[in-house]
Protein backbone atom coordinates (compact mmCIF):
# COMPACT_ATOMS: atom_id res chain seq x y z
CA UNK A 1 0.00 0.00 0.00
CA UNK A 2 1.47 3.32 -1.07
CA UNK A 3 0.64 5.68 1.77
CA UNK A 4 1.92 8.81 0.08
CA UNK A 5 -0.82 8.70 -2.56
CA UNK A 6 -3.69 8.65 -0.08
CA UNK A 7 -3.69 12.25 1.10
CA UNK A 8 -7.13 13.47 0.10
CA UNK A 9 -9.93 13.46 2.65
CA UNK A 10 -13.19 14.58 1.03
CA UNK A 11 -15.12 14.09 4.26
CA UNK A 12 -13.24 16.21 6.80
CA UNK A 13 -11.13 19.35 6.88
CA UNK A 14 -10.46 19.23 10.61
CA UNK A 15 -8.54 15.96 10.86
CA UNK A 16 -5.74 14.46 8.83
CA UNK A 17 -4.00 11.09 9.18
CA UNK A 18 -1.06 10.84 11.58
CA UNK A 19 2.29 9.56 10.30
CA UNK A 20 5.06 8.09 12.45
CA UNK A 21 7.86 5.54 12.35
CA UNK A 22 8.62 4.33 15.87
CA UNK A 23 5.21 3.50 17.27
CA UNK A 24 1.51 4.33 17.25
CA UNK A 25 -1.60 3.85 19.38
CA UNK A 26 -5.11 4.74 18.20
CA UNK A 27 -8.16 4.60 20.43
CA UNK A 28 -11.26 6.47 21.55
CA UNK A 29 -9.70 8.30 24.53
CA UNK A 30 -6.56 10.48 24.24
CA UNK A 31 -5.42 9.64 27.78
CA UNK A 32 -5.53 5.91 27.03
CA UNK A 33 -3.74 6.36 23.71
CA UNK A 34 -1.00 8.33 25.44
CA UNK A 35 -0.72 5.64 28.13
CA UNK A 36 -0.03 3.05 25.46
CA UNK A 37 2.53 5.29 23.79
CA UNK A 38 4.29 5.86 27.12
CA UNK A 39 4.67 2.08 27.47
CA UNK A 40 6.21 1.91 23.99
CA UNK A 41 8.71 4.61 24.94
CA UNK A 42 9.64 2.67 28.08
CA UNK A 43 10.72 -0.29 25.97
CA UNK A 44 7.45 -2.15 25.70
CA UNK A 45 6.21 -3.56 22.42
CA UNK A 46 2.85 -3.19 20.65
CA UNK A 47 1.38 -5.96 22.78
CA UNK A 48 2.37 -4.22 26.02
CA UNK A 49 0.96 -0.97 24.62
CA UNK A 50 -2.34 -2.67 23.76
CA UNK A 51 -2.69 -4.07 27.28
CA UNK A 52 -1.86 -0.70 28.87
CA UNK A 53 -4.35 1.09 26.64
CA UNK A 54 -7.07 -1.49 27.26
CA UNK A 55 -6.66 -1.37 31.03
CA UNK A 56 -6.61 2.41 30.94
CA UNK A 57 -9.85 2.46 28.94
CA UNK A 58 -11.65 0.64 31.76
CA UNK A 59 -10.97 3.76 33.83
CA UNK A 60 -11.15 6.64 31.36
CA UNK A 61 -14.09 5.29 29.33
CA UNK A 62 -16.19 3.22 31.77
CA UNK A 63 -19.34 3.97 29.75
CA UNK A 64 -18.19 1.47 27.12
CA UNK A 65 -16.06 -1.13 28.88
CA UNK A 66 -14.78 -2.26 32.24
CA UNK A 67 -12.77 -4.74 34.24
CA UNK A 68 -15.79 -7.07 34.17
CA UNK A 69 -16.03 -7.25 30.38
CA UNK A 70 -14.82 -9.48 27.54
CA UNK A 71 -12.03 -9.05 24.99
CA UNK A 72 -10.76 -10.32 21.64
CA UNK A 73 -7.42 -9.64 19.96
CA UNK A 74 -5.57 -10.17 16.70
CA UNK A 75 -1.80 -10.01 17.15
CA UNK A 76 0.69 -9.75 14.29
CA UNK A 77 4.18 -10.73 15.36
CA UNK A 78 7.15 -12.29 13.56
CA UNK A 79 5.24 -12.57 10.31
CA UNK A 80 2.20 -14.40 11.69
CA UNK A 81 -1.29 -13.43 12.83
CA UNK A 82 -2.59 -14.87 16.11
CA UNK A 83 -6.15 -14.70 17.46
CA UNK A 84 -7.21 -14.55 21.11
CA UNK A 85 -10.76 -15.26 22.24
CA UNK A 86 -11.22 -14.02 25.80
CA UNK A 87 -14.99 -14.13 25.94
CA UNK A 88 -16.54 -15.68 29.02
CA UNK A 89 -19.10 -18.43 29.41
CA UNK A 90 -22.55 -18.55 30.97
CA UNK A 91 -22.61 -19.74 34.60
CA UNK A 92 -22.99 -23.51 34.78
CA UNK A 93 -26.05 -23.24 37.01
CA UNK A 94 -27.93 -21.08 34.49
CA UNK A 95 -30.29 -22.74 32.03
CA UNK A 96 -33.38 -22.08 29.95
CA UNK A 97 -35.40 -24.23 32.36
CA UNK A 98 -34.27 -22.17 35.37
CA UNK A 99 -35.26 -18.91 33.69
CA UNK A 100 -38.62 -20.18 32.48
CA UNK A 101 -39.45 -21.45 35.95
CA UNK A 102 -38.87 -17.90 37.18
CA UNK A 103 -41.18 -16.48 34.55
CA UNK A 104 -38.66 -15.09 32.06
CA UNK A 105 -39.77 -14.99 28.43
CA UNK A 106 -36.49 -13.47 27.30
CA UNK A 107 -33.11 -12.71 28.82
CA UNK A 108 -33.14 -9.27 30.49
CA UNK A 109 -30.54 -6.58 29.86
CA UNK A 110 -29.69 -5.86 33.51
CA UNK A 111 -29.18 -7.76 36.73
CA UNK A 112 -27.49 -11.12 37.30
CA UNK A 113 -29.24 -13.15 34.59
CA UNK A 114 -27.22 -11.78 31.61
CA UNK A 115 -23.88 -11.80 33.48
CA UNK A 116 -21.26 -14.10 31.96
CA UNK A 117 -17.72 -14.73 33.23
CA UNK A 118 -15.55 -11.69 32.43
CA UNK A 119 -12.64 -12.32 30.08
CA UNK A 120 -10.80 -8.99 29.82
CA UNK A 121 -8.38 -9.48 32.77
CA UNK A 122 -7.56 -12.93 31.42
CA UNK A 123 -6.85 -11.43 27.99
CA UNK A 124 -4.38 -8.92 29.44
CA UNK A 125 -2.55 -11.61 31.38
CA UNK A 126 -2.42 -14.06 28.49
CA UNK A 127 -1.21 -11.46 25.97
CA UNK A 128 1.47 -10.37 28.43
CA UNK A 129 2.55 -13.94 29.14
CA UNK A 130 2.93 -14.95 25.52
CA UNK A 131 4.09 -11.81 23.73
CA UNK A 132 4.78 -9.01 26.22
CA UNK A 133 8.20 -7.59 27.14
CA UNK A 134 7.41 -5.64 30.31
CA UNK A 135 5.90 -6.98 33.56
CA UNK A 136 2.16 -6.53 33.96
CA UNK A 137 2.75 -4.39 37.04
CA UNK A 138 4.46 -1.79 34.86
CA UNK A 139 2.04 -2.10 31.96
CA UNK A 140 -1.06 -1.53 34.13
CA UNK A 141 0.47 1.34 36.09
CA UNK A 142 -1.01 4.14 33.93
CA UNK A 143 -4.51 2.76 34.48
CA UNK A 144 -3.88 2.44 38.22
CA UNK A 145 -2.61 6.01 38.39
CA UNK A 146 -5.60 7.45 36.53
CA UNK A 147 -7.99 5.49 38.75
CA UNK A 148 -6.30 6.64 41.94
CA UNK A 149 -5.48 10.27 41.04
CA UNK A 150 -8.42 10.91 38.73
CA UNK A 151 -8.80 12.52 35.31
CA UNK A 152 -11.12 15.13 33.78
CA UNK A 153 -14.12 13.65 32.01
CA UNK A 154 -14.08 14.28 28.26
CA UNK A 155 -16.96 15.59 26.15
CA UNK A 156 -18.44 12.48 24.54
CA UNK A 157 -17.71 10.39 27.63
CA UNK A 158 -19.61 12.87 29.78
CA UNK A 159 -22.58 12.77 27.44
CA UNK A 160 -22.88 8.97 27.58
CA UNK A 161 -22.27 8.92 31.34
CA UNK A 162 -25.08 11.39 32.01
CA UNK A 163 -27.43 9.50 29.71
CA UNK A 164 -26.70 6.21 31.49
CA UNK A 165 -27.19 7.77 34.92
CA UNK A 166 -30.60 9.17 34.00
CA UNK A 167 -31.72 5.82 32.61
CA UNK A 168 -30.38 3.83 35.56
CA UNK A 169 -31.84 6.21 38.12
CA UNK A 170 -35.30 5.55 36.69
CA UNK A 171 -35.00 1.81 36.05
CA UNK A 172 -32.35 0.18 38.27
CA UNK A 173 -34.12 0.44 41.60
CA UNK A 174 -33.31 -2.99 43.07
CA UNK A 175 -30.70 -3.00 45.89
CA UNK A 176 -28.38 -5.15 43.75
CA UNK A 177 -27.64 -2.03 41.68
CA UNK A 178 -26.71 0.26 44.59
CA UNK A 179 -22.99 -0.26 44.06
CA UNK A 180 -23.20 1.07 40.51
CA UNK A 181 -24.40 4.40 41.89
CA UNK A 182 -21.79 4.39 44.68
CA UNK A 183 -19.04 3.79 42.13
CA UNK A 184 -20.06 5.81 39.09
CA UNK A 185 -22.25 8.50 40.63
CA UNK A 186 -20.69 9.11 44.08
CA UNK A 187 -22.04 12.68 44.20
CA UNK A 188 -25.56 11.57 43.40
CA UNK A 189 -25.14 12.40 39.72
CA UNK A 190 -22.96 11.65 36.73
CA UNK A 191 -19.70 13.62 36.63
CA UNK A 192 -19.78 16.72 34.46
CA UNK A 193 -17.58 17.25 31.42
CA UNK A 194 -14.23 18.54 32.70
CA UNK A 195 -14.89 17.34 36.25
CA UNK A 196 -12.25 15.06 37.77
CA UNK A 197 -13.45 11.54 38.56
CA UNK A 198 -11.44 8.90 40.39
CA UNK A 199 -12.04 5.45 41.86
CA UNK A 200 -9.80 3.94 44.50
CA UNK A 201 -11.73 0.68 44.08
CA UNK A 202 -10.66 0.50 40.45
CA UNK A 203 -7.06 1.26 41.41
CA UNK A 204 -6.90 -1.50 44.04
CA UNK A 205 -8.46 -4.07 41.71
CA UNK A 206 -6.14 -3.22 38.81
CA UNK A 207 -3.17 -3.41 41.18
CA UNK A 208 -4.31 -6.85 42.35
CA UNK A 209 -4.71 -8.03 38.75
CA UNK A 210 -1.25 -6.71 37.87
CA UNK A 211 0.51 -8.29 40.85
CA UNK A 212 -1.10 -11.71 40.36
CA UNK A 213 -1.19 -11.80 36.54
CA UNK A 214 -4.98 -11.90 36.86
CA UNK A 215 -4.94 -15.08 38.99
CA UNK A 216 -6.72 -13.24 41.79
CA UNK A 217 -9.58 -12.41 39.45
CA UNK A 218 -10.25 -16.06 38.61
CA UNK A 219 -8.89 -18.09 41.51
CA UNK A 220 -8.07 -15.67 44.33
CA UNK A 221 -9.35 -12.81 46.46
CA UNK A 222 -11.14 -10.95 43.66
CA UNK A 223 -12.86 -14.16 42.56
CA UNK A 224 -14.04 -14.71 46.13
CA UNK A 225 -15.56 -11.21 46.22
CA UNK A 226 -17.40 -11.74 42.94
CA UNK A 227 -18.72 -15.15 43.96
CA UNK A 228 -19.74 -13.94 47.43
CA UNK A 229 -21.70 -10.98 46.07
CA UNK A 230 -23.39 -13.28 43.56
CA UNK A 231 -24.36 -15.70 46.30
CA UNK A 232 -25.65 -12.95 48.59
CA UNK A 233 -27.78 -11.22 45.96
CA UNK A 234 -29.28 -14.06 43.92
CA UNK A 235 -26.67 -14.32 41.20
CA UNK A 236 -25.64 -17.41 39.27
CA UNK A 237 -21.90 -17.01 38.80
CA UNK A 238 -19.76 -19.06 41.20
CA UNK A 239 -16.13 -19.47 42.18
CA UNK A 240 -16.04 -22.61 40.01
CA UNK A 241 -17.27 -20.65 36.98
CA UNK A 242 -14.50 -18.11 37.45
CA UNK A 243 -11.82 -20.73 38.07
CA UNK A 244 -12.77 -22.53 34.86
CA UNK A 245 -12.14 -19.48 32.67
CA UNK A 246 -9.45 -19.72 30.02
CA UNK A 247 -8.58 -17.31 27.22
CA UNK A 248 -8.20 -19.36 24.04
CA UNK A 249 -5.73 -18.88 21.21
CA UNK A 250 -7.61 -19.40 17.94
CA UNK A 251 -6.83 -19.40 14.23
CA UNK A 252 -8.17 -16.19 12.65
CA UNK A 253 -10.53 -16.59 9.68
CA UNK A 254 -10.33 -14.60 6.45
CA UNK A 255 -11.47 -13.95 2.92
CA UNK A 256 -9.45 -12.47 0.08
CA UNK A 257 -10.96 -9.20 -1.10
CA UNK A 258 -9.40 -7.78 -4.26
CA UNK A 259 -5.90 -8.95 -3.35
CA UNK A 260 -6.14 -8.11 0.36
CA UNK A 261 -6.77 -10.71 3.06
CA UNK A 262 -9.33 -9.45 5.58
CA UNK A 263 -9.04 -11.24 8.93
CA UNK A 264 -11.48 -11.69 11.80
CA UNK A 265 -11.84 -13.78 14.97
CA UNK A 266 -13.87 -16.95 14.29
CA UNK A 267 -17.28 -17.55 15.93
CA UNK A 268 -18.57 -17.00 18.56
CA UNK A 269 -17.68 -13.51 17.26
CA UNK A 270 -19.72 -11.85 14.51
CA UNK A 271 -16.72 -11.01 12.33
CA UNK A 272 -17.89 -13.73 9.97
CA UNK A 273 -20.69 -11.32 8.93
CA UNK A 274 -18.17 -8.83 7.52
CA UNK A 275 -16.32 -11.62 5.73
CA UNK A 276 -19.45 -13.11 4.19
CA UNK A 277 -20.61 -9.67 3.03
CA UNK A 278 -17.22 -8.91 1.45
CA UNK A 279 -17.24 -12.34 -0.18
CA UNK A 280 -20.56 -11.43 -1.78
CA UNK A 281 -19.48 -7.91 -2.73
CA UNK A 282 -16.25 -8.90 -4.45
CA UNK A 283 -18.36 -10.27 -7.29
CA UNK A 284 -19.44 -6.74 -8.20
CA UNK A 285 -17.55 -3.76 -9.64
CA UNK A 286 -17.74 -0.43 -7.81
CA UNK A 287 -16.47 2.39 -10.04
CA UNK A 288 -17.66 5.14 -7.65
CA UNK A 289 -18.14 5.39 -3.91
CA UNK A 290 -20.86 8.04 -3.88
CA UNK A 291 -23.24 6.02 -6.02
CA UNK A 292 -26.68 4.64 -5.25
CA UNK A 293 -25.63 1.32 -6.80
CA UNK A 294 -22.61 1.03 -4.47
CA UNK A 295 -24.62 1.70 -1.32
CA UNK A 296 -27.52 -0.48 -2.44
CA UNK A 297 -25.30 -3.51 -3.00
CA UNK A 298 -23.42 -2.95 0.27
CA UNK A 299 -26.69 -2.83 2.21
CA UNK A 300 -28.11 -5.91 0.49
CA UNK A 301 -24.94 -7.93 1.12
CA UNK A 302 -24.89 -6.98 4.81
CA UNK A 303 -28.55 -7.95 5.16
CA UNK A 304 -27.91 -11.42 3.78
CA UNK A 305 -24.81 -11.97 5.91
CA UNK A 306 -26.55 -10.73 9.07
CA UNK A 307 -29.57 -12.98 8.81
CA UNK A 308 -27.25 -15.92 8.20
CA UNK A 309 -25.31 -15.10 11.36
CA UNK A 310 -28.46 -14.64 13.42
CA UNK A 311 -29.59 -18.08 12.33
CA UNK A 312 -26.32 -20.01 12.29
CA UNK A 313 -23.63 -18.37 14.48
CA UNK A 314 -22.83 -19.18 18.09
CA UNK A 315 -19.88 -20.83 19.83
CA UNK A 316 -18.18 -22.77 17.03
CA UNK A 317 -18.68 -26.27 18.46
CA UNK A 318 -22.46 -25.70 18.57
CA UNK A 319 -22.76 -24.44 14.97
CA UNK A 320 -24.62 -26.52 12.39
CA UNK A 321 -22.51 -25.18 9.52
CA UNK A 322 -18.76 -24.63 9.49
CA UNK A 323 -16.99 -21.33 8.83
CA UNK A 324 -15.65 -22.83 5.61
CA UNK A 325 -19.15 -23.61 4.38
CA UNK A 326 -20.49 -20.15 5.19
CA UNK A 327 -17.48 -18.43 3.53
CA UNK A 328 -17.29 -20.71 0.51
CA UNK A 329 -17.21 -19.19 -2.97
CA UNK A 330 -20.24 -21.25 -4.03
CA UNK A 331 -22.32 -19.94 -1.13
CA UNK A 332 -21.22 -16.36 -1.87
CA UNK A 333 -22.36 -16.88 -5.47
CA UNK A 334 -25.71 -18.19 -4.26
CA UNK A 335 -26.30 -15.26 -1.91
CA UNK A 336 -25.07 -12.72 -4.49
CA UNK A 337 -27.64 -13.96 -6.97
CA UNK A 338 -30.40 -12.76 -4.63
CA UNK A 339 -29.34 -9.11 -4.96
CA UNK A 340 -31.46 -7.22 -7.49
CA UNK A 341 -32.13 -3.54 -8.17
CA UNK A 342 -34.75 -3.49 -5.42
CA UNK A 343 -34.40 -3.80 -1.63
CA UNK A 344 -35.28 -7.29 -0.44
CA UNK A 345 -36.59 -8.73 2.81
CA UNK A 346 -33.61 -10.94 3.74
CA UNK A 347 -33.98 -14.59 4.66
CA UNK A 348 -31.26 -16.86 5.95
CA UNK A 349 -29.72 -19.34 3.57
CA UNK A 350 -28.61 -22.93 4.09
CA UNK A 351 -24.94 -23.45 3.17
CA UNK A 352 -24.06 -26.72 1.51
CA UNK A 353 -23.08 -29.34 4.12
CA UNK A 354 -19.29 -30.96 3.87
CA UNK A 355 -19.99 -19.56 10.92
CA UNK A 356 -17.46 -1.69 23.14
CA UNK A 357 -13.99 -0.06 22.92
CA UNK A 358 -11.48 -0.61 20.20
CA UNK A 359 -7.77 0.11 19.97
CA UNK A 360 -4.93 -0.47 17.54
CA UNK A 361 -1.19 -0.45 18.27
CA UNK A 362 2.05 -0.81 16.33
CA UNK A 363 5.75 -0.66 17.18
CA UNK A 364 9.05 -0.36 15.29
CA UNK A 365 9.71 -4.11 15.55
CA UNK A 366 6.84 -4.93 13.19
CA UNK A 367 4.36 -5.98 15.89
CA UNK A 368 0.74 -4.81 15.49
CA UNK A 369 -2.35 -5.46 17.61
CA UNK A 370 -6.06 -5.17 16.94
CA UNK A 371 -7.84 -5.27 20.31
CA UNK A 372 -11.44 -4.84 21.42
CA UNK A 373 -13.16 -5.13 24.79
CA UNK A 374 -16.59 -4.29 26.08
CA UNK A 375 -19.11 -4.59 28.88
CA UNK A 376 -21.96 -4.39 26.31
CA UNK A 377 -24.80 -1.85 26.31
CA UNK A 378 -22.72 0.84 27.98
CA UNK A 379 -21.92 -0.01 31.59
CA UNK A 380 -23.13 -3.61 31.21
CA UNK A 381 -25.44 -5.40 33.62
CA UNK A 382 -25.59 -2.59 36.18
CA UNK A 383 -24.14 -5.00 38.76
CA UNK A 384 -20.94 -3.72 40.38
CA UNK A 385 -19.08 -5.89 42.89
CA UNK A 386 -18.72 -3.91 46.16
CA UNK A 387 -15.30 -2.43 46.86
CA UNK A 388 -13.80 -3.47 43.51
CA UNK A 389 -15.00 -1.18 40.73
CA UNK A 390 -15.80 -4.34 38.73
CA UNK A 391 -18.84 -3.57 36.57
CA UNK A 392 -20.02 -6.92 35.27
CA UNK A 393 -20.95 -7.32 31.61
CA UNK A 394 -24.35 -8.39 30.29
CA UNK A 395 -23.19 -10.45 27.29
CA UNK A 396 -25.65 -13.19 28.14
CA UNK A 397 -28.44 -10.96 26.85
CA UNK A 398 -27.62 -12.22 23.36
CA UNK A 399 -28.52 -15.81 24.24
CA UNK A 400 -31.87 -17.17 23.08
CA UNK A 401 -34.20 -19.02 25.44
CA UNK A 402 -35.64 -20.94 22.51
CA UNK A 403 -34.18 -24.45 23.02
CA UNK A 404 -34.15 -25.02 19.25
CA UNK A 405 -32.09 -21.93 18.44
CA UNK A 406 -28.42 -22.44 17.63
CA UNK A 407 -27.52 -19.75 20.19
CA UNK A 408 -29.76 -21.19 22.92
CA UNK A 409 -28.60 -20.52 26.48
CA UNK A 410 -26.71 -23.33 28.16
CA UNK A 411 -24.49 -23.37 31.22
CA UNK A 412 -20.83 -23.11 30.28
CA UNK A 413 -21.58 -21.91 26.74
CA UNK A 414 -20.25 -18.81 24.98
CA UNK A 415 -22.88 -16.62 23.36
CA UNK A 416 -22.97 -14.98 19.93
CA UNK A 417 -20.66 -12.01 20.49
CA UNK A 418 -20.77 -8.58 18.88
CA UNK A 419 -17.22 -7.32 19.53
CA UNK A 420 -14.77 -8.00 16.69
CA UNK A 421 -11.22 -6.84 15.94
CA UNK A 422 -10.16 -6.69 12.28
CA UNK A 423 -6.83 -7.00 10.48
CA UNK A 424 -5.67 -6.49 6.90
CA UNK A 425 -2.76 -8.21 5.15
CA UNK A 426 -1.50 -8.27 1.56
CA UNK A 427 0.89 -10.82 0.05
CA UNK A 428 1.42 -12.33 3.53
CA UNK A 429 2.59 -8.98 4.93
CA UNK A 430 0.80 -6.91 7.53
CA UNK A 431 -1.10 -3.85 6.35
CA UNK A 432 -2.51 -3.33 9.81
CA UNK A 433 -5.26 -3.42 12.44
CA UNK A 434 -8.67 -1.82 12.10
CA UNK A 435 -11.94 -1.89 13.96
CA UNK A 436 -15.28 -0.14 14.38
CA UNK A 437 -16.93 -0.65 17.76
CA UNK A 438 -20.65 -0.35 18.42
CA UNK A 439 -22.88 -3.41 18.85
CA UNK A 440 -24.34 -4.73 15.61
CA UNK A 441 -22.83 -1.81 13.68
CA UNK A 442 -19.42 -3.44 13.94
CA UNK A 443 -19.37 -5.80 10.95
CA UNK A 444 -21.17 -3.15 8.91
CA UNK A 445 -18.45 -0.68 9.87
CA UNK A 446 -15.77 -3.21 8.94
CA UNK A 447 -17.23 -3.63 5.46
CA UNK A 448 -17.46 0.12 4.92
CA UNK A 449 -13.92 0.79 6.19
CA UNK A 450 -12.40 -2.02 4.10
CA UNK A 451 -14.17 -0.87 0.94
CA UNK A 452 -13.27 2.76 1.61
CA UNK A 453 -9.65 1.65 1.78
CA UNK A 454 -9.43 -1.01 -0.93
CA UNK A 455 -12.06 0.02 -3.47
CA UNK A 456 -11.94 3.78 -3.11
CA UNK A 457 -8.34 4.49 -2.03
CA UNK A 458 -9.10 6.58 1.06
CA UNK A 459 -6.43 7.09 3.71
CA UNK A 460 -7.27 5.93 7.26
CA UNK A 461 -8.78 9.19 8.51
CA UNK A 462 -10.93 9.63 5.41
CA UNK A 463 -11.99 5.98 5.55
CA UNK A 464 -13.26 6.59 9.08
CA UNK A 465 -14.75 10.04 8.46
CA UNK A 466 -16.84 8.95 5.46
CA UNK A 467 -20.60 9.09 6.19
CA UNK A 468 -21.92 5.75 7.38
CA UNK A 469 -25.09 3.75 7.03
CA UNK A 470 -26.47 0.97 9.21
CA UNK A 471 -28.98 -1.72 8.32
CA UNK A 472 -31.37 -2.17 11.25
CA UNK A 473 -33.92 -4.82 10.21
CA UNK A 474 -36.08 -5.83 7.24
CA UNK A 475 -35.69 -2.90 4.79
CA UNK A 476 -34.89 -0.27 7.43
CA UNK A 477 -31.58 1.56 7.02
CA UNK A 478 -30.29 4.48 9.06
CA UNK A 479 -27.87 6.99 7.52
CA UNK A 480 -25.95 9.87 9.02
CA UNK A 481 -27.10 13.40 8.35
CA UNK A 482 -23.84 13.96 6.39
CA UNK A 483 -24.84 11.17 4.00
CA UNK A 484 -25.59 12.53 0.51
CA UNK A 485 -29.32 13.22 0.67
CA UNK A 486 -29.91 12.72 -3.03
CA UNK A 487 -28.42 9.21 -2.72
CA UNK A 488 -30.62 8.56 0.32
CA UNK A 489 -33.60 9.53 -1.81
CA UNK A 490 -32.50 7.19 -4.59
CA UNK A 491 -32.12 4.36 -2.08
CA UNK A 492 -35.66 5.03 -0.90
CA UNK A 493 -36.82 4.78 -4.51
CA UNK A 494 -35.26 1.30 -4.62
CA UNK A 495 -37.41 0.21 -1.71
CA UNK A 496 -35.17 0.93 1.29
CA UNK A 497 -36.82 2.51 4.31
CA UNK A 498 -34.29 5.29 4.93
CA UNK A 499 -34.08 7.12 8.26
CA UNK A 500 -31.68 10.08 8.47
CA UNK A 501 -30.10 10.40 11.92
CA UNK A 502 -28.78 13.75 13.14
CA UNK A 503 -26.81 12.24 16.03
CA UNK A 504 -23.74 10.16 14.99
CA UNK A 505 -23.77 8.01 18.14
CA UNK A 506 -25.22 4.88 16.59
CA UNK A 507 -22.74 4.56 13.72
CA UNK A 508 -19.77 3.14 15.58
CA UNK A 509 -16.34 4.43 16.53
CA UNK A 510 -13.30 3.19 14.67
CA UNK A 511 -9.50 3.22 14.63
CA UNK A 512 -7.01 2.29 11.91
CA UNK A 513 -3.22 1.88 11.68
CA UNK A 514 -1.61 0.90 8.36
CA UNK A 515 2.07 0.15 7.78
CA UNK A 516 3.77 0.88 4.45
CA UNK A 517 5.37 -2.37 3.30
CA UNK A 518 8.44 -0.67 1.81
CA UNK A 519 9.29 2.14 4.23
CA UNK A 520 7.78 0.78 7.44
CA UNK A 521 6.09 4.16 8.02
CA UNK A 522 2.87 4.02 10.03
CA UNK A 523 -0.25 6.03 9.22
CA UNK A 524 -3.21 6.16 11.57
CA UNK A 525 -6.72 7.51 11.78
CA UNK A 526 -9.01 7.93 14.78
CA UNK A 527 -12.75 8.29 15.06
CA UNK A 528 -14.02 11.84 14.58
CA UNK A 529 -17.37 10.87 16.15
CA UNK A 530 -15.85 10.56 19.63
CA UNK A 531 -12.98 11.81 21.82
CA UNK A 532 -10.43 9.60 20.08
CA UNK A 533 -6.88 10.34 19.03
CA UNK A 534 -3.74 8.83 17.57
CA UNK A 535 -0.65 8.96 19.79
CA UNK A 536 2.60 8.46 17.88
CA UNK A 537 6.35 8.98 17.86
Describe the protein's architecture and organization.
The chain has 19 helices and 21 strands. It is 35% helix and 19% strand. The strands form five sheets. The chain has a seven-stranded antiparallel sheet. Strands 7-4-3-11-10-2-21 form a seven-stranded antiparallel sheet, with helices on one face. Strands 16-17-18 form a three-stranded mixed sheet. A hairpin with a 6-residue loop joins strand 19 (509-515) and strand 20. Mean pLDDT is 93; it is low at 1-8. It has two domains: 25-249 and 358-398, no CATH class; 251-357 and 428-536, 4-Layer Sandwich (Glutamine Phosphoribosylpyrophosphate, subunit 1, domain 1). It is an alpha+beta fold. Helix 1 runs antiparallel to helix 2 and helix 2 packs parallel to helix 6. The two termini are 21 Å apart. It comes from Oceanobacillus bengalensis.
Main attributes of the structure:
disordered N terminus; GGT-like_enzyme; 19% strand; 537 residues; alpha+beta; Glutamine Phosphoribosylpyrophosphate, subunit 1, domain 1; seven-stranded antiparallel beta sheet
